[in-house]
Specification:
Blueprint: H1 2-28, E1 36-45, H2 52-73, E2 77-88, E3 91-101, H3 102-107, H4 111-114, E4 115-117, H5 121-124
Parallel strand pairs: 1-2
Antiparallel strand pairs: 2-3, 3-4
């Protein structure tokens, strides 16, 4: 009976100390940080009388600002994909996508190097008709 009680007490002590050790390690060990990509969609409404070229220029400026802001506000973001969508009187279509990693942006923060423009968008948005 004494032996059985000592066995239970020993087992309880071992489990208790093990649990304390694991909890202590979890509390003081540094957490592993993991980088991740960030996708951002931005909707622009065409301003009255704005040409397609001006809309593209405005969208490039906004894409650059959004990319810089994303990298500045979250150090764990490793890659940014900005998609600019335009709205012309209810017609919505993507104008451009800017895809860049943090390292690429740090070496060359020029949006024109990383932007892909979509073909035929002026027609879809009916911006090339008089």
């Amino acid at each position: 009976m004494l032996r059985n009680t000592l066995s239970k007490l020993s087992l309880t002590l071992i489990l208790g100390l093990g649990s304390i050790g694991i909890l202590t390690y979890e509390a003081i060990a540094p957490k592993i940080a993991s980088a991740y990509p960030q996708n951002v969609e931005i909707y622009l409404t065409r301003q009255g009388g704005e040409t397609y070229e001006n809309l593209l220029e405005r969208s490039s400026i906004i894409a650059r600002a959004a990319t810089q802001r994303t990298f500045d506000t979250d150090v764990l973001v490793s890659e940014v994909a900005i998609t600019i969508l335009a709205d012309n009187q209810g017609l919505i279509a993507p104008l451009l996508t800017l895809n860049v990693t943090r390292d690429q942006w740090w070496q060359r923060p020029d949006p024109k190097a990383w932007i892909d423009y979509y073909d035929g968008i002026a027609t879809l948005l009916q911006l090339n008709t008089p």
